C-alpha cells in the first residue's frame, strides 16, 4: 500500500509540474522511506520494555522543559524559547508555553500520543507517564490538548458509563465557560457557542485565531470547490497549497504562505484519491481494533500538521510501534484485548 501511495504521488507530480514543487515531493519521499526503515529497525531490535522507557523519558524531558519555561516566566527573566512560545489572537496576546515543541498544540498532541501508546503497551495501567503529560498540557493551556484528553478518557471509559461521563464533562465545561473569562475551556465553550448561534467565520476567528486558522481553510475550501472540479479528486500538485490555499484563509502573512494541516493542505495537493491512500496506509500499519481514539488523535493531528511535518510522522510512527507490539506479543493480546503487563523478554518481532 505504501508503494501504491508513492507511485500515485510521483505520477501526480509529473502531471502537475506547473504547480508542483519538486522539493516537496522529495521531502515526502524522504519521510516515507524513513518510516519504512524505522519500522524495520523497531521490528528487529527493540524490546517493549525499552520502548516504554523511551516514551517515559520523552514525556518527563518535555515536562522539565515546561518547568524551565514557567520558572523563567515567573522570575521575569524572559521565557526560554520565547519566540516560539508567544501565541497571539485577535482578542488577546499572551505567552503560552510550548516546551520542546514549536507551539502548544503540537506539544499537547505529542504528549497525548506518548501517553496513549505507553498506556497500550503497559497493560492499560495508569502509569507515572500521565503526571508529566497532564501537567504539561495544563500549563501550556492548549485547547487541542484538553480536547485530546477528553476524547482519550471517553474512548477508554466503559460503554455503560460513557453517557454519564459525557454529561459530567459537558456540565463542567458549561460551568467553566459561563463563569470563566479565559483559558482553553473558556475558548472551547465560546467557539462552540458561536457555531451554535450561526456566527460567521470571521467572528469565530476573533474568539481564537489559532484555532480558526486550523479549521477555516478547510471549511472555505470545501465550500468553494464544486464537486465536478477534477482538482478536488486528483489535487493540484505537491506543495501547491503553500501559495494557492491563501485564497481560503483570513488574515495570514502572505509572505510565509499556507502552513496549515494535512486537512486541507494534503487534500489540496493530492486530492481525495491521495488522501484516501494515506488513510489506507495508516489503517493498515498504525490502527488497532481496540480503540477509536487513534482515529480521533490522527484527526486532531491532521488539522494541525501537514504530511511533511515532524508531528505527523512522529505520531504515526508511535501508533505503528504500538500496533506492531500489540500484534506480535501474544502475551499482551488475546482476542484483541490487552490482557497483562509486558515482560522484559517480550520483543516487537517482525510481522
Describe this structure in words.
- It is a single chain.
- The chain has 351 residues and is mostly helical.
- The protein has one domain (2-338).
- The protein is built from 16 helices and four strands.
- It has helices at 2-14, 22-45, 48-75, 82-85, 104-121, 130-140, 143-156, 159-179, 184-196, 201-207, 209-224, 230-234, 241-244, 262-286, 293-302, 310-328, and strands spanning 86-88, 93-95, 333-334, 337-338.
- Strands 1-2 form a two-stranded antiparallel ribbon. The chain has a two-stranded antiparallel sheet with strand order 3-4.
- A hairpin with a 2-residue loop joins strand 3 and strand 4.
- It starts with a helix and ends in a 13-residue tail after the last strand.
- 36% of the residues are buried.
- The model is unreliable at 83-93 and 330-347 (pLDDT under 50).
How helix-rich are the residues, as a percent range? 55-70%
Q: Per the principal axes of the C-alpha atoms, what is the gross shape? A: globular
SSE order, as H and E?
HHHHEEHHHHHHHHHHHHEE
SS elements, strand count: 4
Query: Which percent band covers the strand fraction?
Result: under 5%
Task: Characterize the biggest β-sheet.
Answer: 2 strands, antiparallel
Amino acid at each position: 500500500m505504501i508503494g501504491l501511495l508513492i507511485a500515485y504521488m510521483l505520477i501526480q507530480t509529473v502531471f502537475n509540474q506547473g504547480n508542483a514543487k519538486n522539493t516537496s515531493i522529495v521531502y515526502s519521499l524522504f519521510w516515507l522511506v524513513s518510516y519504512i526503515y524505522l519500522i524495520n529497525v523497531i521490528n528487529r531490535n527493540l524490546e517493549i520494555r525499552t520502548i516504554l522507557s523511551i516514551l517515559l523519558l520523552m514525556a518527563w524531558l518535555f515536562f522539565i522543559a515546561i518547568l524551565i519555561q514557567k520558572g523563567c516566566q515567573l522570575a521575569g527573566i524572559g521565557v526560554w524559547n520565547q519566540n516560539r512560545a508567544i501565541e497571539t489572537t485577535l482578542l488577546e496576546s499572551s505567552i503560552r508555553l510550548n516546551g520542546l515543541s514549536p507551539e502548544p498544540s503540537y506539544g499537547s498532541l505529542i504528549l497525548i500520543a506518548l501517553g496513549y501508546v505507553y498506556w497500550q503497551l503497559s497493560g492499560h495501567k495508569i502509569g507515572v507517564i500521565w503526571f508529566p503529560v497532564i501537567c504539561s498540557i495544563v500549563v501550556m493551556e492548549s485547547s487541542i490538548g484538553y480536547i485530546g484528553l477528553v476524547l482519550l478518557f471517553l474512548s477508554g471509559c466503559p460503554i455503560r458509563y460513557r453517557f454519564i461521563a459525557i454529561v459530567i464533562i459537558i456540565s463542567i465545561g458549561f460551568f467553566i465557560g459561563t463563569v470563566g473569562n479565559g483559558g482553553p475551556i473558556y475558548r472551547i465553550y465560546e467557539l462552540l457557542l458561536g457555531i451554535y448561534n450561526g456566527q460567521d467565520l470571521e467572528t469565530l476567528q476573533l474568539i481564537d485565531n489559532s484555532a480558526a486558522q486550523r479549521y477555516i481553510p478547510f471549511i472555505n475550501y470545501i465550500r468553494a470547490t464544486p464537486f465536478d472540479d477534477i482538482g478536488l479528486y486528483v489535487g493540484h500538485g505537491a506543495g501547491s497549497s503553500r501559495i494557492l490555499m491563501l485564497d481560503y484563509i483570513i488574515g495570514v502573512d502572505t509572505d510565509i504562505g499556507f502552513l496549515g494541516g494535512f486537512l486541507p493542505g494534503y487534500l489540496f495537493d493530492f486530492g481525495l484519491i491521495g488522501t484516501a491512500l494515506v488513510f489506507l496506509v495508516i489503517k493498515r500499519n498504525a490502527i488497532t481494533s481496540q480503540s477509536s481514539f487513534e482515529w480521533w488523535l490522527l484527526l486532531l493531528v491532521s488539522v494541525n500538521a501537514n504530511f511533511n511535518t515532524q508531528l505527523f510522522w512522529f505520531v504515526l510512527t508511535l501508533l505503528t510501534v504500538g500496533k506492531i507490539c500489540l500484534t506480535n506479543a501474544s502475551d499482551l493480546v488475546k482476542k484483541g484485548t490487552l490482557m497483562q503487563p509486558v515482560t522484559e523478554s517480550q520483543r516487537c518481532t517482525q510481522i
